[in-house]
Amino acid sequence: MVTVKNGQSKSPGKGSTGANAALASAVKDAGCSYASLSLRVNELGRRQGLETNYDKASVTRWLQGQQPRGMAAELIAAVLSERLGRTVSPTDLGFLPEQQRPVVGRALTYREDVAETLHTLAELGSTDISRRSLLGTVPFVAGALTAPQREWLLWLVEQADDHTAAATRLRSVSGDGPVEQVHAMIGMFDQMDNHYGGGGVRTSIVHYLSTEVIPLLQQRGTAPHQLRQLFAAAARLAAMAGWSSYDAGEYGLAQRYMTQGLRLCAEGRDRVLGGQILAGLSHLATSLGRPDEGVALARAGIATAKNGGSPLGLMRLYAMSARGHAALGRPDDTAEALRAAEDHLAASRGAEQESRWVRFLDHHYLQAESAVCFRDLGLASQAERTAVESVRANADRRRRQAISRSVLATAHLQQNRLDEAIGTATEALGTLSSVHSERSIQALRDFRGRLQPHRREPLVQEFERRSRAVLGAAA
User: What is the DSSP letter of 397?
Assistant: First the structure.
């Protein structure tokens, strides 16, 4: 194996035998120069913690037939998808066929064959647990969100006349045998996640899904109704693996687990859960600087769940839509989405009448999400009021406590109440000592970033000193 510039490898006779006509055509149609293509690939990589240094010479080598290393093929496809206004995959661009690509590339794809999905998810989990292929550098690829949405919505249209959806949801409430055991494990993981954050329970979820649940789904002879429930439970576990990865700062892994979970959800025919997985992807996209995608994913989730019989599930999806609109600076759209969320919350007849997947949602959840929206829109007094209520109501949910305190600190700062802001942020810092949650840390880092105009104040300097151990050094 001969190492070449920019961390690429060239293996004689494999991927380097001829010019890449497909890539050349796409680059020409996109109208971008080699320099601009390489620059944008580097930008997307750095957003995900990848240190790349591609240049126009790198593009020339790709056009000559050299296969990019690691996740570069996905990044190149994402850039050209942006420029072309349509989704193109690495395979479309003449790179290695999907079956030969690393699992972290294949896991971005929503497959028709569920057996392939199970194989990919098991391989992803095994690779994740053993930390092969440096999974910590897996990038979030916004351009890869479009195809799963499309495939899911096409499935939804095909199921429009399927009258078993409501019955399926009701049956899933009371499983038997292995289904009930999986549900019990999900409940335990949920409890641990709520108290200690996703970072502390993530590996356990991935291991259980990969080594216990997926083999159950690969067995022959399971009764159809039980198999459907198992697929729904596995979809929930995959979504939990995604959320816990998100909470641990593994954003690329979060996207992949949620995408594969969505495909499993189709086998389970559970529209409520499908909507919740789309809500998770929406949250992820908005938080990573793509609120436009966040709004689109929330809309897909609303279309999914609107006939699922779950007002609480719809409440959450409208809250995710509001978050996206707020991040885009759209106060009217945000207000409309929050009103819809409140209406669906009021329409719920109680947790026991809802799907098991959304029973944790309540008025306090909506308060916490609304506070974030008000903060992002600069509506400080409204953010303060709702964040205070969220802090009071969530004493036993440490992650939500930490996030809401950080939002409250920002609301104080937006009203020029520096002493109160620092005091509240210090309380949030104390909460973080017992929570392994990158989302909570990022919320407090957001607050710390807003302190820049006051950095000469002794109070701010003291907070920076005290927070460094948890938040890292300020940029």
Answer: -
Instruction: State whether 92 and 131 are in the same domain.
Output: no
Q: Average model confidence (pLDDT) for the chain?
A: 87
Regarding whether 229 and 118 lie in a shared domain, the answer is yes
CA–CA distance, 291 with 300 (Å, rounded to integer): 14
92: in domain: yes
Q: pLDDT of 376-408, one tens digit each?
A: 999 999 999 999 999 888 777 778 888 999 999
What are the φ and ψ backbone dihedral angles of 4, each rounded to 5 degrees?
-125, 175
Question: Residue 252: is it exposed, middle or buried by C-beta count within 10 angstroms (0-12/13-18/19+)?
Answer: buried
Give the length of the chain.
Answer: 475
In the chain, the number of structural domains is: 4
Residue 164 — very low, low, confident or very high, per pLDDT cuts 50/70/90? very low
Q: Are residues 257 and 389 in the same domain?
A: no
Which pLDDT tens digit goes with each residue over 263-311? 999 999 999 999 999 999 999 999 999 999 999 999 999 999 998 889 9
Q: In angstroms, rounded to a whole number, what is the distance separating the alpha carbons of residues 316 and 364? A: 12
Domain boundary among 302, 330, 361: 361
Give me 20's structure tokens: 């890449």
